[in-house]
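Hello,

Following up on my earlier ticket. Below are the two sequence lines again, exactly as submitted.
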Amino acid sequence: MTWLLLVEQTLNGAQFGVFLFLVSAGLTLVLGIMNVVNLAHGSLFMLGAYYAATFFGLTGSFLLALVIMVPLALISGIVIEVVALRTMYDRDHMDQVLATFGLILFFNESVRLVWGPESQPMPVPDFLDGSVEILPEAPYPVFRIVVILVGLAVGAGLYFLITRTKIGMLIRAGASNRAMVGALGVNIRLLYTLVFGLGAILAGLAGMMAGPIQSVEPGMGEDMLILAFVVIVIGGIGSIRGAVIASVLIGIVEVVGRSILPFAMANFMGEDAAQTAGPAVASMLIYVLMAAVLFFKPAGLFPAQAG
Amino acid sequence: MIDRIKLLFLIGGIVVCALVPPVAGAAGDDFYVTLFARIMIFAIAAVSLDLILGFGGMISFGHAAYLGLGAYAVGIFSFYGINDGFLQFFVAIVGSALVALVIGAICLRTRGIYFIMITLALTQMLYFLGISLEEYGGDDGLNTDRSEFIAGFDLYEEVNLYYLILGFLILCVFIMHRVINSRFGMVVRGCHANEDRMQAIGFPTFRYKLAAFVISGTMCGIAGALLANLTEFVTPEFMHWFRSGEIMIMVLVGGMGSLFGPAFGAAAYLLFEEWVPDLMEAVATGTGENWHFIFGPLLVILVLFAKQGLWGLIPDRSRRDG
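Thanks for your patience. The regenerated structure is below:
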C-alpha cells in the first residue's frame, strides 16, 4: 500500500513541478536576458487564474476561457513591461526589487477590489473530470495527467523555440551581449517585450491550470514565486533546461517529502516525535537541497553559457 | 562626522520619542505610546538592515528572519514559564547571530540576483518551519508573557517597556555609528564600492561581509525580542517575506546608506500605515483596508524619483556623512 501512495505522490509532485516550470520558465528568461528581478511575476500567475476563473464561469467552457485568457495575460504582461519595468533595466537590483514589490501590493489589492477578498470558484471542467487507473486499483485524476502532458508539451515547444528558430537565436544572442545585438540592427526592446509577454502567457497558463487544484485568491502567486526562485537558483539563471529539471525535482521533493517523511521517520524514531519533527523537516527539505546545490555549484546545475 | 543640521534632527527625533509617554499620559491616550514603541522597534530593525543594504551593498531580502528568531527566543522561553529577561535576550542575541552566520555563509557565496533570491528563500524556510512547529502554536502563534529583568522594573507598565525600547534604540544607533566609522566599516563600504579592488589590495572580503551580515542580523534579533514583549504574541508572520520587504521599504524611505535615515523611514512607513487608511476611510467608507492600492504605485514612484529618501531631503553642508 505504501508504494502505491509513493507512486501517486510522485505524480502529484511532477504535476506541481509543471506549475513551477511554467512560472519559472518565464522568470528565468527575464532574469537571464534582461537581468531584471521581477517579483511581480507571481502576480501574472494570479491574474491568469482570475481571468480563466471569470471567463470559465461566464462561458461555461474551459477551452474558451483558455482562448480568452492567453491574449489577456499577454496584454497584462506587455502593459507591465512597458509601463513599469522598461524604466528599470538600467537601475540596480535594489530598485527593481522594491518597485516590483510595489507592483505586487498593487495587483493583490486590485484583484481584491475587482473580485472581492473571497476565493473564486473554479471547478474541474467536465470533460477532464474523472480518473483513470494508472496502476491496478490506483485511480488518478485525468485533470492532473493533462496538466503533466501540457507541461511536457510546453517544455518541448520552448526548447524548439529557443534552439531552432530565429527568435530563439535572437533571445540567446541578446542574453550573451545585448549591446551587440542592438548594434546589429535588432530591435532589442521589442524582443524584451516579446519575451516578457511570453513569460506572462506561461505564468497565466500555470495559474489557469492551478485554479481547479488550489484556490483562486489574492496573493496566490507569492508562494509560487518563491518556489520559482528556488527552482531558478538550482537550475541556473537563464537556463530552460535547468528550469525543467529543477522544477520536477523541487515539485517531487516538496510533495513527496511532505506526505511520506512523517511516516518514514516514524520507522526509526518514536511515532510522536515523527509527527512533530516530520512536517518541520519536510518544510525545510527543498531549501536544504538548494543550499547543498549552491555549496557545490554556486551558479546552479546548468549555468547558461551566456551572461 | 555628522553634519550639524542632521545632528539637530537626530536629537529632535530622540526628544520627541522621549516625550511621547508623558504627553500621551496627560492626554489620557495610550495608543500613541504603543505606536511609537512599535516605530522604535522597527527603527532598530531598519537601522540594522541598512548596515548590509546601504553600506555593504548586500541586498538581503530576508531580514524578517531575525525579527522572528528574536521574538521566538522570548516566546519559547515564556512557553516553558521562564521569563528571565537577561536569559531571553541573551539567547535571542546568540541565536540570531548563529543563524545569521549560517545563512550568511551560504548566501555570501553568491552575488547579485542569486543573493536576493537565496536570502528570500532561506527566510521563507524559517517561516514554514515556524508554521510546522505545532508545539509552539504553529500558524496560530503563541501568547507570551513579558520579560522580567530586575525587581521593581515591571515591563507590564507600558512606560517602562517604552523607555527600555528607547534605550535599546539609542544603544543600537550608537553602536552602528561606531561600526560604520571604524576601520571595519570602511572595509565593508569599500566592498560595496568595488569588491574586486578590495580583494586585490589584500582584504579577505568574504569574512568582512559575513561579519557585517552577522552584526546586522543580531541587532535585528534584539528588535524581535522587543517586538515579542510589546505584542505579547509571537507568530510566524513576523518572518513572512512581506515583513522583509517592509523593512527594506523603511530603509529606502528613510534613505539608504544614511545611518539615522532608516529610523525616520520606519516612523514614516508606520505612520503612513496608521493614518492613510483612516484618511481613505474618511473619504470613502470601506476603502481603508485597500491602502496598498495607493501605496504600491507610490512605492514605484519613490523608487524611481526619490532614491535619496527622507534623510536626503534634509539640507546638508558636508557632502557625505556617516
